[in-house]
Amino acid sequence: MESINLFRGYGKVNPHLEDQSPHHQYTSSKRRILIFSVSSILLLTLIIGLALAALIHESNSESEESLYLSSSNPAESIKTVCDMTQYPSSCFSSISSLNSPAKPDPEVIFKLSLQVSISDLKNLSSFLISFNDVSSQAAVKDCVSQFDDSLSRLNDSLSAMEVGPGEKMLTLEKVKDIQTWVSAAMTDQDTCIDGLEEMGSKFLDEIKAKIERSKEFLSISLAIIAKMQALLEKFDQKLH
What we know:
The protein is an all-alpha fold. Helices cover about 80% and strands about 0% of the residues. α6 packs antiparallel against α7 (about 135-160), α6 (about 105-130) runs antiparallel to α9 and α7 packs antiparallel against α8 (about 170-200). About 25% of the residues are buried. It comes from Salix udensis. GO terms for molecular function: enzyme inhibitor activity; pectinesterase activity. This is pectinesterase.
């Protein structure tokens, strides 16, 4: 009886196997590809959306910062500029001590930094003239002459920024010239120290300390003018 049942079952097709026909397999593969494509498109759309949101947020943040700086008090504006220098504390204290406009921008703050440098260099030159050191008299005389050249270059920088109402104090060409002049003034101070060292001045340490302070102020001015374009952008302004 069992043999008869086996015989009857021979040749019958499993209904589940019929579902695995080539047509069904093709349809299933096509469905999987479609699902994968839709998922990929959705993922790409999500990534693009997140990237755009980040860009919009960054743009809004920069706009808010520019708006804040343009309407902030003088102390905040000076601090923003001074933070771009190597000596932010010295920069802030020296410039804040001067009379500044109600809303100083980077150009005005740079001009104030030049005034600080000029004032300190004048004091340094007067300090050297007062020395009565015979052994280093020639070197001191050279230093005074070099500082006179430095003062001339710094005053040229200030003169270049004197413009009429509504005009910009700085242009790309002026920035390059001023950078050269301030750098030359710093080189003059290094040359002065070299000369004093060669002469073996007994006042070398005292003089070097004052020169280093002067170089610090010049370094502040140089840093501000070198980063003027980036600073103006923070204040929603442009360099012409």
